[in-house]
Amino acid sequence: MQFNELLCQHSNIKNNTRFNSLTGHVKRIYNADIEVPGSSGIEIAKKYLELNNKLIGNQKELSDLTFIKSKKSHDVQHFFFKQNYNGIEVINSGIVISLNKENKITTVYSDYFPIVDLNTIPSLSVIEAEAIAKNAFKNYDRNNVIGKSELKIYADKAGETHLVYEVSLNMENFIPLGMVLVDSHNGSVLEKSSHGQSFITGKGKVFDPDPGTYFRDATLTASSNVDAAYKTNVNLTNLDGNGNVQGRYAKSINSNYLPNDLAYNSQNNFSYIRTQTYFKEVNVYYFINKMREYIGTLGISPTWKDGEEFLEYDASVNSVWAYGLNAVYFGTSDQERL
User: Fold this and answer.
1) What Å distances lie between residue 16 and 23, 25, 99, 238, 281, CA to CA?
2) What is the per-residue DSSP string for 86-129?
């Protein structure tokens, strides 16, 4: 059965569904009103996945999905599932099923990676991987110590999956330094993030406040001249300096794994106008970073209570806060960002 045929079995979701451009499987379903039989929320969520596993690319009849937790936000209950492969956790994977107070499914968020015949026997020992990870931070004048090393599965930006060692490093005083993903077969460093890096301040053009508030005119349209509302040369603090709009508290990534379709400036100057997709990217970064930076001044940690450092965001049909995925979606449907 084709995906559109499966989608037609649900009402109200044909125009509220987005697909992974690499795999063709469903990534997001919004504003749904799907009724599935079941006596409890978790039973309904599991039953929905069982009936629609092929929509998300699942071929294992849910044997590689583990229910990990549920959260309640107002009248909505969110059920979280984590993906594994042969018992090994898949990094950045997960499915969130959200139910309203009538126990109808309203949203489905899927970051599921179809994995076929991945060799899960590492060629490198954990000691060899840790040595590679420590060398990745050789520019730090510290005697780094290993925090924790775990074997996991990682999907890169091209959608290719790798068996990796996830190695966390600490400084001598046990303050977290960073995390390195080392390919367990060839020893290559696939990803590295640093908690101890220095952040920079870039420049950008934003609306602050929005044009409607600035002009005190609720009748403005997309074609209205709002140039006077631009705030130019604003400081974009906490950037990591890599030329993209990402930093300590927020980052933009393309959820369709198209890394070149993001704002980039080697001088970290992001002065776009509103007709450019990148303008939205800069605006979202500016306000998320500003909010979380302010939280820090109150003596409260700007990172969330579950330890997630970043708030990720992407562009799609409307601006919506995806509680379950710690993400903001914004912009236009042809520019999928997260």
Assistant:
1) 18, 14, 16, 34, 22
2) TTEEBTT-EEEEEE-TTS-EEEEEEE-----S---S-SS-HHHH
CA atoms within 13 A on the CB side of 145: 8
Give the span between the Cα atoms of 309 and 303, in whole angstroms: 5
Tokens 């990870």 belong to 133
Domains of the chain: 3-111 (3.30.310), 126-194 (3.10.450.40), 200-330 (3.10.170)
The per-residue pLDDT for range 54-92, each reduced to its tens digit, is 888 887 778 899 999 998 877 889 999 999 999 999 998
Sign of CA dihedral 45, 25, 307, 105: negative
**For 55, left (φ over 0), alpha (ψ -120 to 50), or beta?**
alpha
